[in-house]
Amino acid sequence: MHVTDDRKLAALILALVMVSPAVAWAGHGSEEDVVTVTVEQVKAFLDAREKIIIVDLRAGADFQKARLPGARSVPLKELAKRYTEIPRSGRVVLYCDCPQNQIIDDAYLLLKDYGYRNAAIMADGFQGWVNRGYPMETIAKKVTR
């Protein structure tokens, strides 16, 4: 196998893992199927240059300081008004620095109610990305290591 074949195989395996939903407690009396991806999976998607839409749900000021490479800012407080900015096709990953049950209740389920079936939550959120020392964009949009 060539390096590109290995990357394609890794991307395929990751894609298959992503479409198998994990069940998480949504905090409102029932269990919902919530698709999650790990920080490592998101990093692998980026490394493989897969088309992925990363949505940063943190406040705009936090987004300006540092964010995942290529992330779009749609603050959680504005999501109900701006959800149409998120594509209904392709792979969409949501993250913030809030507890996972908050992102499920306030973002994931809202998108699901509006018919989105392509969103996933990045487990461990922004802090998980930072803790692993993965690259980030800053105000100058440079990727830091």
Q: Please work out how many helical segments DSSP would assign.
A: 6
Main structural class: alpha/beta
Total separate domains: 1
The tally of beta strands, per DSSP, is: 10
| Strand and helix order | HEEEHEHEEHEHEHEE
Please outline the major beta sheet. Answer: 5 strands, parallel
Give the strand order, joined by hyphens, for the main sheet.
Answer: 3-8-7-4-6
Reported by name, the CATH topology is Oxidized Rhodanese, domain 1
Overall pLDDT, averaged?
A: 82
> Residue ranges: pLDDT <50 for 5 or more in a row?
9-31
- Helicity range: 25-40%
Tell me the overall shape. globular
Radius of gyration: 15 Å
Instruction: Report the portion of residues in β strands.
Output: 15-25%
Q: What would CATH call the architecture?
A: 3-Layer(aba) Sandwich
By CATH reckoning, the class would read: Alpha Beta
End-to-end CA span: 29 Å
Q: State the CATH superfamily name.
A: Rhodanese-like domain
Question: What's the gist of this structure?
Answer:
By secondary structure, the protein is of the alpha/beta class.
Would you write up a description of this structure?
With 145 residues, the chain is of the alpha/beta class. It has one domain (3-144): 3-Layer(aba) Sandwich (Oxidized Rhodanese, domain 1), CATH 3.40.250. Helices cover 39% and strands 23% of the residues. It is built from six helices and ten strands, in the order αβββαβαββαβαβαββ. The strands form three sheets. Strands 3-8-7-4-6 form a five-stranded parallel beta sheet. A hairpin with a 5-residue loop joins strand 1 and strand 2 (31-34). The longest helix is centred in the N-terminal third of the chain and has 17 residues, at 3-19. The radius of gyration is 15 Å and the shape is globular.
